[in-house]
Fold this protein.
Amino acid sequence: MKKISESTVRRLSLYLRFLQEASDGGLDTISSDELAQRGGTTSAQVRKDLSFFGSFGKRGLGYSVPELLRQIQEILGLSRSWKVALVGAGKIGSALFSYRDFQLRGFHIRAVFDTDPTKVGAAWGDLTVRDDGEMDAALREQGIDMVIVAVPAEAAQGVVDRVVKAGVRAILNFAPIRLRVPSSVALRNVDMTVELEGLSFALINR
Amino acid sequence: MKKISESTVRRLSLYLRFLQEASDGGLDTISSDELAQRGGTTSAQVRKDLSFFGSFGKRGLGYSVPELLRQIQEILGLSRSWKVALVGAGKIGSALFSYRDFQLRGFHIRAVFDTDPTKVGAAWGDLTVRDDGEMDAALREQGIDMVIVAVPAEAAQGVVDRVVKAGVRAILNFAPIRLRVPSSVALRNVDMTVELEGLSFALINR
DNA sequence: AACAGCTTGTGAAAACATTCACAAAATAAA
DNA sequence: TTTATTTTGTGAATGTTTTCACAAGCTGTT
């Protein structure tokens, strides 16, 4: 398969969101142009993005909302549910844990770990925060697909090394640090400081 | 000035981080290659990024850590402090509020707003959560530079319209929705669902 | 002073991503 | 059935970003 760029994948995610809104609104057909307007891009971009995966539209008509919805879910691997573990039961971890959108889209948090003895044992929903020492074995046993890292920067690389060794191949990192992972592991960073600094740059340059 | 790409700005942010680490480690000189290794990029990329803003290095030697640190801070507008308001006092808002890195880098949260009467009036550090109705006036009065949006998706566009009308020109959005803002306003999105979906895609495509 | 060893700064080349532009396919109306 | 209208899918053109490659400049050594 041809190499798909990260920006294409990001946009697919957005298209999916608009399709869900359109679907909720009872719309059953949508054009590349409508999709584009909502995502701040162009209709050509939408069509090009989709064209990497097939021809989903009807000329003269546009796309069937439910069908395109299903197709993009398939493309992104969202027709199945993923087992997620959360490492770090601090403020950010806790906010992520109760973030409804995750569950809604098939990302199920199945385990939470922390090193802090005052946190271990706490009940989070129907889970119990477990000791960090149990993590490595638990990741394998539970067949965890993805790990969300929400620990302090100093601890993050150590956690990730263990997570990778335990066979996990996708990591979402919230710690403000650039992690090293083998190229076989997918890594995304949510780096709030970088975003704020980008805004700062934008403010002084116009 | 020539147009600087968003990726360049992002990388400058990362370089800044490494320089701070290097500085803490007592290093006083660093090469583009060392900077590159840590950021997962190439030395040519580092030099090109910096070259948009000037010549900060010494051939044969590299860059002076404290000087490059200062220069990048200047470029990113971090030598001053920014006044930030937080809209949304839920889980995510609360996690962001106590995120030490922000204050550390000159982003000072000066006001918190929410619509929920059970939250309004609560003491957060030395601030009090204020009613959403006070926001528009307060943003102007306090001379807020940036707003962090941490409200539910349904409420986000409404908040942003008011924030823009109040003269704020930089917005960091955590709501899972594509916001519309005038082109004069800088907007960054932190979209955790998009990131997770990107990981999902990566998992099923290798 | 000349040389060896590094590392920067930068045009030019290559790779990658977006936009253009239009033939092809679908529908609806006459 | 023909025509008008719409919108897709896609090569080709354009624009942007990254990488290459090397002269120029700095330091330390002989």
About this structure: The two ends of chain A are 42 Å apart (CA to CA). Chain A has a mean pLDDT of 97. Chain A has two domains: 6-75, 82-194. Residues 5, 7-8, 41-42, 44-45, 48, 58-61 of chain A lie near DNA strand C (CB under 10 Å from a C1').
